[in-house]
Specification:
This protein has 407 residues and is of the alpha/beta class. The protein has 3 domains: 80 residues, no CATH class; 59 residues, no CATH class; 161 residues, 3-Layer(aba) Sandwich (Rossmann fold). 49% of the residues lie in helices and 7% in strands. It has 14 helices and 6 strands. The strands form 2 sheets. A 4-stranded parallel beta sheet has the order 2-1-3-4, sandwiched between helices. The chain has a two-stranded antiparallel sheet with strand order 5-6. Strand 1, helix 5 and strand 2 form a beta-alpha-beta unit. It is flat. The termini are far apart.
């Protein structure tokens, strides 16, 4: 396992000797190997901000070095060594999906149609094993939705989340589309007879606390719009849409919706020795603890300052404690997932998968036989064989049948 570096390698300014450059590149190679190992341990590439917490946790930087380290990482990702290798490969730092390129060229790697069809046949058995027709929610009572403030939290929590549990990162105050998607999940849950619940995890700072406190208020106007749209859709399907107003209101109702903030909280932070950052600097670069800040006197800021002082913990700090992060998610989810229901769901789907696999194996045997006879890819031969089979097994009449005409 690569040893953690003790500092951020620096080339220096001005004219640099060959010896110094080679020493710097050797340090960067060691640093790069350490980052590769961290990524391997986590199972995913952290975003840039999360790397800063990993640097701090390893003793490479202090909490006062975050801005300099951010610039250092950005420059290293854009630079090559003397042999043309990237100092910090791009794949080590996760991209911001909101800025990702989109578009896709769809093509098949098989060279001929026959190879393509053969590939499909080979995959039939594997696909049959993956046949799980019963919904995960069939044997559940609750429908939890995991909402985090930061993207990397989703990656950290995923090993503890059943695949069916919806999760998303709001990246601060969630946009209208994200809130609408969340409400559509709430509607779906209620249509299935389940009780939806939002599980939220975000920063421990004035804004992070305010976000969790304001989730209900921020969902309310979007819920009203979706309710109106739902009634408008019904009006095109029924002559009496007003009869469904009560149903629509219930499906998108947020007043009794259970909303749970499960992190970050002070007790968890102290137990796991997460990093407190001095000051309450926001994305604008201004500090909420500064009396001259326009929002300094806001109730949520003053309440926070009174309870925690001018310091904060960003949710990205969890990346330095992946095991504790999983435990945090498991504990938050436990009251809302019925383990016995999961077992019943797995048992029902396993039986269905085994039946589908058995039928698929029979089908593949039939195709194998057709191929062995040279019929599978020859339409003419297959048609001739089918005709011979029909003639061989068609019932033969012993004699003519006289039919008397009716009058």
């Amino acid at each position: 396992m690569p040893i953690a570096p003790t500092h951020l390698p620096k080339l220096g300014s001005g004219r640099v000797s060959l010896q110094r450059r080679l020493g710097y590149e050797s340090e960067m190679a060691t640093f790069r190997a350490w980052m590769e190992n961290i990524k391997k341990q986590l199972g995913f590439a952290p975003v840039s901000r999360s790397w800063l917490y990993l640097f701090e946790d390893a003793g490479i930087i202090t909490k006062g070095d975050f801005d300099k380290a951010k610039d250092w990482l950005s420059n290293a990702r854009k630079s090559l060594d003397s042999e043309g290798r990237p100092l910090v490969p791009l794949h080590l730092v996760a991209r911001d999906d909101t800025r990702a390129l989109s578009g896709c060229d769809i093509f098949d790697k098989e060279e001929t149609p026959r190879e393509y069809i053969n590939g499909l046949i080979r995959n039939l058995s594997e696909q049959a094993k993956q046949y799980w027709p019963a919904s995960f929610w069939k044997f559940q009572r609750f429908y939890p939705i995991v909402w985090t403030e930061k993207r990397d939290l989703i990656k950290l929590f995923e090993p503890a989340l059943p695949r069916a549990v919806k999760r998303f990162a709001g990246k601060g105050w969630a946009d209208i589309n994200s809130r609408a998607d969340c409400l559509k999940e709430i509607k779906k849950a209620r249509q299935m007879g389940l009780e939806p619940v939002i599980l939220y995890c975000g920063d421990l700072d004035p804004v992070g606390v305010a976000i969790s406190d304001q989730i209900r208020n921020n969902l309310r106007p979007i819920a009203e719009v979706l309710q109106a749209e739902y009634l408008e859709e019904l009006s095109a399907q029924t002559a009496h849409p007003a009869l469904f107003q009560g149903v629509a209101k219930t499906l998108f109702e947020v007043e009794t919706l259970e909303i749970v903030r499960f992190g970050l909280n002070e007790e968890f932070i102290e137990e796991n020795d997460l990093l407190w950052i001095d000051g309450l600097e926001t994305s604008s670069g201004k500090d909420l603890a500064d009396p001259s800040h326009p929002q300094h006197d806001q109730p949520h800021v003053q309440s926070y300052l009174e309870q925690y002082g001018a310091q904060k913990v960003e949710a990205n700090a969890l990346i330095t404690r992946p095991e504790a992060a999983l435990e945090l998610m498991e504990e938050a989810l436990a009251p809302y997932i019925d383990d016995e229901g999961v077992e019943r769901w797995e048992a029902e789907n396993q039986l269905a998968s085994e039946e589908a696999t058995q039928h698929t194996e029979h089908f593949i045997k039939m195709l194998t036989f057709l191929d062995s006879q040279g019929w599978l890819y020859s339409g003419a031969k297959l048609a001739a064989a089918a005709e011979q089979h029909r003639e061989r097994h068609q019932p033969q009449l012993s004699g003519a049948i006289d039919i008397e005409p009716t009058t």
